[in-house]
Structure formats: C-alpha cells, structure tokens
Amino acid sequence: MQLVFATNNGNKLKEVQELIPNHIKLLSLADILCIEDIPETQPTIEGNAIQKAEYVKTNYGYDCFADDTGLEVEVLNGEPGVYSARYAGPQRNAEDNMNKLLSELENKNSRSAQFKTVVALHLKGKLKTFTGVCTGEITSTKHGEGGFGYDPIFKAKGYTKTFAEISLDEKNKIGHRGKAVTLLIDYLNSL
User: 117 and 180 in contact (C-beta within 8 Å)?
Assistant: First the structure.
C-alpha cells in the first residue's frame, strides 16, 4: 500500500515515519511534486485535516492522509486551538507562539491544556477520521531542546518533563499525533 502524508512539516513527517509499518510506503508532498501551500481555512481542527486530504486526492489523485493539530488551553477557552501554528502571526514562528502563550498565561491560576490531532484518511473514495488527545499543562518556562512547536512548554499529565525533553519514541507513545496515527494504522491493518 502507498499513501501520501499531506504535510510540508519535516518534523511531523519524521514522527509519523517512525510509526508507519514497513508494508505501507509513505510518500511526502515533495515526492508527488506538491509544492504549493495546501489551504487550511476551516474553523475546526477536523475540518482542516479533511480539507488537506481532499485537496491532495482531488488535485493529485493519490490516496492520502493529512493531519491537523491544535493546542487547546482551558483557561483561554481552547485557544490557540485551530490557530496554533499562527497564534503570534502569519510567520508561523514557534518561539513567537510560545512567548505569546506564556504571556497570556502569566497571571492565570490554571495551566491545563491538551494537544489534539485529527488525522483524515482519503482511501479508495472513502473518508475516515481518527482523533488523538494528550492532556497536560503548560509550563511557566521553556525546557528541552527536542521536539517542535509548543513542545518545550507542554508537559503531559503524569510526566515531569516537557515533550521537548523526552525521546521521540516516548512522545509517540503518549502524544496526540502518535495516538491518532496508531488508530489510523489499526484501521489500515484491518483492511
């Protein structure tokens, strides 16, 4: 089986490649010569994942899956949510996004948050979604050099280290994307 993972994010691609079994050949957008920015204009995480998967299927003809992820902070009514990548502006800068979030939480008592990933699979004319959630909290300062995005300020429930301080293998086991991709793989293996 061959599937396109509709992402230009090399970090996401690396995380998912670690999880996908060898009998599934994973292609990137670069492999199918898709160099344009795929639209993400939906008001929900699920909507964006579906939009990206449908874009690749419609414009390139490949069976594919796409994901969208958001960091939802309870005391901020779920922000940054669907706007996580652009929270501090269109430049999509992780440092700027983290700094803005830490500033927003400065005088807040609760730091509860969750990462949510939705994977949309477009396969043989059918669309199916898989959701992974990882609950935790936002730290008051950045810790760790690994990971990407908000990883240096997100600590999963029951853990003392941020996502940026744990191994990719460990993150894939407990993290939102790993959970969603595991559901995807279980589904593909059942076919």
Answer: yes
Helices 176-190 and 10-19 cross at an angle (nearest 10°) of 50
Tell me the two tokens of residue 154: 């997100």
Phi, psi of 20 (to 5 degrees): -70, 130
pLDDT digits (tens, 9 = 90+) for 37-65: 899 999 999 999 999 999 999 999 999 99
Determine the distance from the C-alpha atom of residue 86 to the mean position of all C-alpha atoms in its chain, rounded to a whole number: 14
Active site residues: 68
When divided into structural domains, the chain yields a total of: 1
Q: Which two tokens stand for residue 161?
A: 């280290």
- pLDDT of amino acid 15: 83
With b for 16 or more beta-carbon neighbours within 10 A and e for fewer, the 57-89 pattern comes to beeeebbbbbbbbbbbbbebeebbbbebbebbe
Report CA Rg, the chain: 16
In whole angstroms, what is the distance from residue 49 CA to residue 17 CA? Answer: 18
Where in the sequence is the domain holding 23, given as residue range(s)?
2-190
CATH number at residue 100: 3.90.950.10
The closest alpha carbon to 27, from 45, 1, 51, 49, belongs to 1
Cβ–Cβ < 8 Å for 71, 145: no
The per-residue pLDDT for range 105-158, each reduced to its tens digit, is 999 999 999 999 999 999 999 999 999 999 999 999 999 999 999 999 999 999
Distance CA 70, CA 78 (A): 9
